[in-house]
Specification:
By secondary structure, the protein is mainly alpha-helical. It is 66% helix and 0% strand. The protein has a domain of 57 residues. 0% of the residues are buried.
Length: 83
């Protein structure tokens, strides 16, 4: 066969890429994606608060709702939602 002057897709994948020296600043990316230190602290606080609320809901369920399920024989409710 006849060789063409154009490169094949395989050759394009193996060509070396020149990376420019003066790249754009990337500092804003973490801030936009909320990956910076400030948001990490906020996320930890929210996670802690959510954990406290969920534990309180579980306690409330165990003390107030579960006894009613027993009295009214609705045992399947706890398995469905809080297994």
């Amino acid at each position: 066969g006849e060789e063409s002057a154009e490169s094949t897709p395989e050759e394009e994948l193996t060509q070396e890429i020149e990376i420019p020296e003066n790249l754009r600043p990337r500092d804003h990316i973490n801030q936009i994606l909320k990956l910076d230190q400030d948001n990490e602290i906020k996320e930890a606080a929210i996670e802690k608060a959510a954990d406290i609320v969920l534990k309180e809901l579980k306690r409330l369920y165990d003390t107030a709702i579960k006894p009613l399920e027993t009295v009214y024989k609705y045992r399947d409710l706890s398995n469905r939602h809080f297994g």
